[in-house]
Amino acid sequence: MSLSSLKTISLQRFSLNFAANIIAACWMLIGSTRAFSWVKPTFVQFALFALLGLASNVLFSWLAAESGSVFNEQGLVSYLIWPTIILLVGIILARRSGNQSLLFVPVVLWLVADTISALLQSLVQLFGSRGWLPDWSYSFLPILFLLLFLWQTLALLWIFSRRLRTPWWERIIVLIGAVALMTIWQKNVADQPIFKPIPVEPRLEEAALYEQANLLQNALNSIDASIPGKTEWYFMGVAGFAGQDVFRSEINNARELFEVRFGTSGRSLSLINNTYSWMDEPIATKTSILRGLKKIGQQMNADEDVLLLTLTSHGDADVLQLDNAPIEMDNLEAEWLREALDESGIRWRVIIVSACYSGSFIDELASPTTVIITASAADKMSFGCTNTAEMTYFGQAFFAESLRENTSFASAFKDATYKIQQRELYMGFEPSEPQMVIGSLMETALPAFERVLFDQSRRVDLTIDNDQSNGNSLSNSAALLSLEPESAVSVTIDE
């Protein structure tokens, strides 16, 4: 059936025309040519849905915008280009077919569908901003929004090709070309939303610049020397990426766990990259990490003591990201970390790496006296590094839960791995497959080292239980930190 025979009859009431156009758009979105029977393409309807489409897209952009964003004229122009193109197509079709009633048909159908799509996106965005969507869905939202944009335009092309009875191969070529064109367009204008954040260059206060040297030196000076003849644990935590608070939070929580529960107070060091901690905590760079390892190596007894080193950040194969603008930092490579550990003289090591592809660190860090635990396999991603999270999936499962409930690293790792698998399965994520490798000599020594660590944890629990049974409460963690082992334990394994 040709377009010249298409007749559109407007209804007497404005509201009926409005409702008919919504119904027409719904038919169009499912690929039905019944849309032509319902559409009422008057100028008033065109003007109304042009305003509604614009308003709904402005609403979506406002909901999706970061705090402090401002109106961006370029984003408005980018949106208006598509209805303008479709209006021009309608003008061309109307002239070629000699059917003036066809003038507003394509643009009215597209604008109604776009209004519906933008309102749906706004609703999803609102739910997302309130935290009402599952974690796994956030990574798919950009794809969903692109598909909705493609859908309304492809549906319009489809019903017109059916109306014109074009050959199937022409339809396929047109649809593929349209998908390619619109996908490229959307990617190119992705940085031009209607509301755009004002770019702010990272700035570092002069006071913070000079304070960093003091913070690092004070942190190093606070590390106590080991007591001869007694096995002690040392803790060192590194948060690599400044742009998300979850990494800082994870290291701080892990340090608190080891100081309060496992008695490493006075033998702990944290190096934190975070936008808001320049005046409070020493930053994590290769220089500070090396200095920290060397200081711990000087203070501990290489034959008797153990270092627990935990690192958390974004990662790639054999690389952990170190980033803290405006300073340009080199990333931390697995090979460099192994060299730094060897140079420090630290013999007994438990190394925990929480990052994507962290399993790639295993080959470089493995040694007879080392335990290596990673949040993922060498070719897998790990999850949970969001701005709203307190800890990553691995950090929550291993530090916050499993280490508190078990008496060995192996059992805690097994328990944490199960919890992570269940959470990833629920979220629909590909399994991260956490890894644990124990060196040959460490396999012999680890039970004795763990006995020292977890006996301290049991005494903490016993103290808390006794205080609670006596009706007392610990006002702060200082009471826990004063606990000492009932007897000194020394572990020495000859290679």
Overview of this structure, please?
This protein is an alpha/beta fold and 495 residues long. 53% of the residues lie in helices and 9% in strands. The chain contains 16 helices and eleven strands. The strands form three sheets. The protein has a six-stranded mixed sheet, with helices on both faces. Strands 6-7-8 form a three-stranded antiparallel sheet. A two-stranded antiparallel ribbon has the order 1-2.
User: Which residues form runs of ≥5 with pLDDT under 50?
Assistant: 473-489
- Helix-residue proportion: 40-55%
Look at the helices and sheets and give the structural class: alpha/beta
What characteristic shape results from the CA principal axes?
elongated
Q: Please report the number of helical segments.
A: 16
Distance between the termini: 88 Å
The strands making up the biggest β-sheet line up spatially as 4-3-5-9-10-11
Number of strands: 11
- Percent range for β-strand residues: 5-15%
The mean pLDDT is 88
| SSE pattern | HHHEHHHHEHEHEHEEEEHEHEHHEHH
Largest sheet at a glance?
6 strands, mixed
Evaluate the radius of gyration.
31 Å
